[in-house]
Amino acid sequence: MSKAIVQDDKGGPEEFKWVEWDAGRPGEGDVLIRHTAIGVNFIDTYVRSGAYPMMTFPGVVGMEAAGIVEELGCGVEDLSVGDRVAYVMTEPGAYSEQRVVPAERMVAIPDDITDETAAALMLKGMTAEQLLFRIAPVEQGDIVLVHSAAGGVGQLLVTWAKALGCTVIGITSTPEKADLISSLGADHVIVSSSEDVPARVSAITGGKGCAVVYDGVGKDTFDVSIAVASKFGRVVSFGNASGAVPPVNIAVLAPKCLLLARPQVFPYIADRSDLLRASDRLFDAVRTGAVNADISKIYALSDASEAHTDLEARRTTGQILLQP
């Protein structure tokens, strides 16, 4: 019997309990993983609170992790006991010492990538990969705006977009995080709590606006995203950190002929071939320095409630992990 962070009902971080939890045995096509590092994401808070009804109770949250294969189910031929693997899945359950997972969702961790880096980047890194290469592909010379640029996905978008030759405008709500965003390579940093974002963007771009706006904040920034986009620009709303965007009259897109997307990463990696392509591109970006895991803090798995409290209070930057 191993342990896990279990909650009996939806609610705040206080619902988390560190208890014994039976991971079960691998069935056909499954493997039993012993986790070595577990990623923490904002979506975990939505699942925990019940905002995203993705889990039955009692249940275990968590979408991504890295670990070591301990047992193979029938029919698993591409993995061996002792292999280092990582995964991201739509089904919660990663906040645990052990977990049974489908072998087809496993990605082998290359020898030059640590377990911690893989666990920190599977969801956020693949999200950034899809945003930059498939959902709203960027080209050298594009002006790109990234909301919440000091956050997990935000930092990855800033550094990766710069590596692709874009001019990057990073937005943050506090001056304390502005230096961090500049250090990542952002060409311009705007502190939204004290500056007029559309006015600054207009001054920076000569009134043209941004070719692509990546908005993981949601309700509080959606109108700004529309305002700062260029003619024929693309606005990608991919998160709800401030709450869901209210119903939108699509006529607001017409004056600039804007394209609006509200994607999620999982359909883009549902096919194993797409999953492996995305992970290969992500690991290559780590090797070249275009992407850095930037793990700011590692919490004990038993302290998951503290990790969620810090995350929701915006006291974290970059990536945070849980470690069994």
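That was protein one. Protein two is written in the same sequence-then-structure order:
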Amino acid sequence: MSLNEQLAGMKSLAYHQEGQVAHLQFNRPEALNTFNRDFWSEWPAALRTIGASGEIRALVVSSTGKHFTAGMDLEVFAGLNGPEFQLEASRRAEMIRRWVLELQSAFNLLESLRIPVLAAVQGGCIGGGIDLICAADCRYATEDAFFTIKEIDLAITADLGTLQRLPTLMPQGVVRELAFTGRKFSAQEAARYGFVNQTFADQASMMNAVMALAHQMASHSPLAINGIKEMLNYARDHSVDEGLRYAATWQGGMFHATEVLEAMTAAMEKRAPAYADLQPNQPILTKNQ
């Protein structure tokens, strides 16, 4: 069954595929693409399906309508008052902790994918939207886009990744100001501080450019791309010495002379190199059972 068939019929998301580039779109523009219950089941399932395939080499995340996303849908918060949460205080606290960890894991999946993830933002990217795009590899925005760490206005501490990832992408003082105030910051400010790679006049030109970049990334060795993402994520969370040692260990096991030869041969023959797909990311012991 193709990925298009596996990912058809989602209520909150739309899936498209161009060759080896996957494209996930938030698809509830009438509701400002808020993250409702459907999203929280469909999003991780879609990422796992894409990640399990060895044929996809880049993922673009975008949206429909005027705004990228207004963040968490209120119906999700309303569920906290449901009967399943009416427990003795310590057990309710433990259950809420597991609930937050489950939500976090949905965005953590972007980092664990073996492929580059490019986020393309138009209009507002609010609250949980920033949590999500912080976990992407690259971010692009229209000139009229804006971002808001909205949780402070709801008397909440942001808990799905913004406060952990954004300080590695922007200056600490700026992040603290944005988190403490909840003020909007523009695409231009985001680009100035390095949060956004590039801005575009409109959504159409942004999507053309982002899809072109995704295809360019997809044309390279998927094994080398996987290694780059693994090294960058590891280096962010470890010392330089630890990162270098891990890189040496990685190369000891992953150096691929066959693909190096193919890259050099293709360059001499003035053709595009041909690289094999990664093996599907599926359970090895049970896949034939």
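Residues 126 and 184 are 9 Å apart (CA to CA). Keep this in mind for the problem set.
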